[in-house]
Amino acid sequence: MNKYICSVCGFVYDEKLGSPDYGVNPNTKWEDLPNDWVCPWCAAPKSDFYKEETNKKEDKQLEVEEIKFEGKLNSLELSVLFSNLSRGFEKSYKPKEQKICFEISEYYKEISNKIDGTLEDLLKLIEDDLGNAYPNAMTISKNDRGALRALVWSEKVTKILKSILSRYDEDNIKDNDIYVCSICGFIYIGNDLAEICPVCKVSNWKFEKIGVR
Questions:
Q1: d(CA 54, CA 37)
Q2: For 93-108, how does the pLDDT look when each residue is reduced to its tens digit (9 = 90+)?
């Protein structure tokens, strides 16, 4: 029997085991699942799953773009930078440094210019990240296990975001609250959080409610 993997969050559907916790009996074949069946973790449709043994990618020599840093970040980028530093200090149990970085992050966020654009524009940027930016970054970081681990998590979260945005109007997502796992970035939409994050398994108190903008 086969296994099918969600390309958004990594959930594995094993035909032999089924998914009893979500109402699917063991030995239920993939084609016997209803067409409107969705991933139990992230609600991605069946079309976002791939068969495990047929997803092997051929090794390709990627053309790596040269990365240049001009030495100047805009206010939004500075806000993100200090927000990440704040979380790092929080995990290191350094409350004084965490507070300073958080306040700086909030300051830069306040003065940041709003980004104009449509949902379609955002999806195009995400597609470019998944198709070009992540493969290039992974090639550059192939000898750095820490960087590769961070990129894998980031790519997974970007796929989750793509899936959510693609279903934005169809599923009335804009009428629900949005929560983000502060550890791995998993995004949950709805009012009742699961007890643990389906991706990194931390308790749901690590989720932050961001609402809808």
A1: 21
A2: 788 888 998 899 888 8
What local confidence, expressed as pLDDT, does residue 61 receive?
46
Residue 157, Ramachandran bin (φ over 0: left; ψ between -120 and 50: alpha; else beta): alpha
Residue 206 and residue 183: Cα distance in Å, rounded? 7
Enumerate the domain spans of the chain. Answer: 3-54, 75-111, 116-169, 173-212
Map tokens 């979500």 to a residue.
22
Give the DSSP letter of residue 22: G
Q: Which residues contact 20 (CB under 8 A, 6 or more apart)?
A: 26
Q: Tell me if domain 3-54 and domain 173-212 are identical in fold.
A: yes
Q: Give the whole-angstrom CA distance, residue 132 versus residue 128.
A: 6
